[in-house]
Amino acid sequence: MGLMKHWPIFGLRVRTPRLELRLPRDSELDALAEVAAAGVHPPDLMPFAFPWTDAPPEKVARNVLQYSWRCLAGWTAQDWKLPLTVFADGSPIGIQELYAQDFTVARHAETGSWLGLAHQGRGHGTEMRAAILELAFTGLGARTVGSAAHTDNPASHAVSRRVGYRENGRRFSAVQGRPVEDTLYLVDRESWSAHRGVETEITGLAPCLPLFGLAEEPEPRGARPR
C-alpha cells in the first residue's frame, strides 16, 4: 500500500473481456522484458521510430526495463508517459502506452504499443487500443488522440482505422540510416464514440487524476457494452 498511496497509478486498472492493462510489479516487468527479447517483429521490419529492438535479446530486455523506469521517474503533470503492460490470462504480452504534453490545456494525447510475436494476430492489438482510448476519452476527458505508423506496417494501420482514427498527414524521418515515411492518424471524440465496440472497465483512476493535472473526473466511467 505504501507505493500505491504515494504513486496511485499502480492501482489503475483498465479491463476488457480478454485483457487487463496496468503497471506491472517488478517480477511482471521482468517477464514482459522476456516477451520483448523473444521477438516483437520480423527481423526484416523495423516498426519503431527509435529502433530499440535492434539489439541482442538481453539488451532488448534491458531496454524495456529502463524505458518503463524512465517514464515513471520523469513523470510530471505537464509531460507524462503511461506505459501500461497488457496482460492476457494473467501473463504480460506487450505494452499499450498513452502519453501527452500539456494535456490539461490541449486535451490531446498520443498512443504507442507493441506485442510479442507469439501474441500477434489474435485481435489483441485492437482490443488494447480500444481500452486505452476509453481511458483517454472517458477517463481523462481527451478531445483528440493521435498515432503514427510507418507506411510498411499494415497491421498498425488496420488497428487505427478499426477504432476510429483517420489519416492526418505524413512525416519523414531517418531510422537506421534510411528514410522512413509515417502515416499520421487522429481520432476525435465523435469518431471514437461511433467506433466503441469493446466493453471496457476503468478502476482506480480517481486518486491518479492529480498526477495527470486533473482535479475531477471528466465524466462517469465504467463498463460500456455495445
Automatic annotation (TrEMBL):
Q: Which InterPro entries match?
A: Acyl_CoA_acyltransferase (IPR016181), GNAT_dom (IPR000182), Ribosomal_N-acetyltransferase (IPR051908)
* Coiled-coil features, chain-numbered ranges: none
GO CC terms of this entry: cytoplasm
Q: Name one Pfam family in it.
A: Acetyltransf_3
Q: Which SUPFAM superfamilies match?
A: Acyl-CoA N-acyltransferases (Nat)
* Molecular functions per Gene Ontology: protein N-terminal-serine acetyltransferase activity; protein-N-terminal-alanine acetyltransferase activity
Query: Mind telling me what this protein is named?
Result: RimJ/RimL family protein N-acetyltransferase
